Amino acid sequence: MGGRVTRVFRTFNVESRARREISKEKPTPAPRHRTARLDATADQTQVKEEILRKDDRLLTLLKDVYVESRDPPIRVKDGGGEHLPCKQEEKRLTKLGHLGALDVKKVSKGKISIVEALTLLNNHKFHPQIWTAEKIAAEYSLELKDVNSLLEFFIPFTVQEFPKETKKAIKS
Question: How far apart are CA 28 and CA 97, in angstroms?
Fold first, then answer.
């Protein structure tokens, strides 16, 4: 509704307002600076001569300048001496889970795959006397402090089913 009201005021007496604006005298432009007019009428040949003229003093100075470039000497590294040690990670075969082809085959020492982590957490949960932190560290090539942290902070999910007699039956 508000659009209709504003449109009425916008279109009210449009033609007479347009005629009034068109009939107004156009404003006179601001006067140009004197040099701007001189540039437009300047003698083009004088500028071209100035560009093409050679300055003998500058040419002699340019001839005195001599630039000689040399490549830096190439350093050849000898075979002995300063070699950085190359860190090659030791890999171990994983204890494959039930996924077979999708499981990771090799893992760096000190690390375990997801399947191995779930397996060792589950084994420790059901048989904590057999699967102690020391045995897990030796079995999976892990540090003892990492295994203790893993067993303390990560717990596998457990599925709990409630007996049917505790559920309330819906009476229809």
Answer: 91
Strand partners, 93: 106
Rounded-to-integer distance, Cα 150 and Cα 120, Å: 10
pLDDT tens profile 100-140: 565 667 778 888 888 888 888 998 999 999 999 999 999 88
Helix (H, G, I), strand (E, B) or coil at 86: coil
Maximum CA extent, the chain: 115
Q: What's the start-to-end Cα distance of the chain, in Å?
A: 55
For residue 38, pLDDT over 70 is answered with no
Say which amino acid occupies 72.
P
At 116, which amino acid appears? E
Residue 108 Cα distances to 98, 122, 123, 140, angstroms: 21, 22, 22, 10
Going by C-beta distance under 8 Å and a sequence separation of 6 or more, which residues neighbour residue 110? 141, 142, 143, 146
Neighbours of 40 (CB within 10 A): 7
